[in-house]
Amino acid sequence: MPLLSIPIPSTAWQYFDLTAWLRDVLGWSLPLDFRIHAYAICILLGIVAAVVLANRRLNARGVERWIIIDIAIWAVPAGIIGGRLFHVFTHVSDYFGPGRDPWSFLYIWEGGLAIFGALILGSLGAWIGCRQVGLRFSTLIDAIAPGVLLAQAFGRLGNYFNHELFGMPTSLPWGLQIESTNPAFPKGLPDGTLFHPTFLYEIIWNVVGVVVILLLDKRFRLQWGKVMALYLIWYGTGRSVLESIRVDTSETFFGVRTNVWMSFAAILLGIVIFLVQTRRHTGAEPSPYVPGREPRRSTDVDSDDTWSEHDDDAPAAAAEADPVPATGSAR
């Protein structure tokens, strides 16, 4: 292998054998094999990061602390199911056919979650969660959009541990080492061929996107789903390019990979949402809650975070609405 290249991690890093550890260290014998996969850990870390960031952004809008967990209970399982179904749909030959394990489509720990499927069903789960807690759906998706990009960056690191989703051959010094026994290794190429580390490209693109979207949101005070619109445009643009250089098999339509079409659809949807919502809503959201569902102001909301991050005049307005008497002590 060239000295200047990205080494692929050993397969020993793909999972931690909990059953063997309990047997060898503690002398416990379990009837089943339990393995903790690096891919699963990366996905879980991404979910936690997204939830924490969304919670902070919602708190800044005056939403109760950790109400995001009530919504995540619906959104996360739905997103995982949607992501898996969409991945299997776009990689049918990897799971069904001669010599294939008919149950392998359930082996989610081996990798294979499609973000577009996760967004579709995850959004449905989030909408149900918002209905349960009385939160505006537009408020939620704007709060969580940067966190979704952050979660995707963690997920791509999991692809690195799984030795998957690499790009075309390259001679660049940051080429990725891939073993020739890898099922996705193109036939006819010699051992030692380096490939574009598309997982790394997408990590960088997503992290930069988080910073850009947060800065634009702070500068222009975006609401009514326009932060999510920026996410769709940003991610769709990057994914359309990176998907085009991948070498793993995928379903195609008119010679173009399915996820490239989905990227184009995401860009178009983001543009439409941004334009329509800009025209429809010229002012700020009146409240992060739907009418009649606002909670009583209490310790459920941090005192420092009760005012919207988009409303610099809120403290002054509050003082005007509830002035302290000139004489006597404040109540």
Automatic annotation (TrEMBL):
User: What are the Acidic residues biased-composition ranges?
Assistant: 301-314
Q: How does it sit in the membrane?
A: Multi-pass membrane protein
> Pathway it belongs to?
Protein modification; lipoprotein biosynthesis (diacylglyceryl transfer)
Which Enzyme Commission number(s) are listed? 2.5.1.145
- Keyword Metal-binding attributed: no
> Where does it reside?
Cell membrane
Q: PROSITE patterns, alphabetically?
A: LGT
For binding a 1,2-diacyl-sn-glycero-3-phospho-(1'-sn-glycerol), which residues are annotated in this chain's numbering? R156
Sorted keywords for this record are: Cell membrane, Membrane, Transferase, Transmembrane, Transmembrane helix
Q: What is this protein called?
A: Phosphatidylglycerol--prolipoprotein diacylglyceryl transferase
